[in-house]
Amino acid sequence: MIVMADAIFHILESTCEGWETLVRYIDQLLGTGNEIFDIEAHDDLIFDDDLYTRSRRCFWAINCLNESLNLLQRNMKTWTEQRDDILRPMARKLPSEKTMKQFDMAIEKCDKVLAKLMKVKESFHEQRTKAVALRDGVSRCNHHPRLSLTTSSYSPQVQ
Questions:
Q1: Of 85, 109, 84, 117, nearest in space to 2 by CA
Q2: Domain spans in the chain, listed from the N-terminal domain onward
């Protein structure tokens, strides 16, 4: 049973590394937030080109994050169900105190990965909020009646 818990730990750890890689990729895709202080980068944030490059990127990120959140929550639920419904009841039958401590340590390692997965989940929620704000900002500016979108730079129209 300790071997099973250790195997689950390695699977959870590998899964967590994959999710953390996705967090870093989407962070890079969405930008740091410092773009607002760079005039050219700022304009790129609020205006899209004729191919809707920025909007498509935001829609992709939102859809990816929605699906990733669902999968991540399933990963976390699966571990907690396995731990609570299978491993812990089986642990009552362990032959010695020493074996029980080894088992508890293996479960604790898995729960530490679960805590890291919770942080990934929080990051996904934050990234989704950022992607929605970026998408909505681009969308609103592209349809604003006082803004000309013949180029990707801001040019207010005179009324």
A1: 109
A2: 2-142
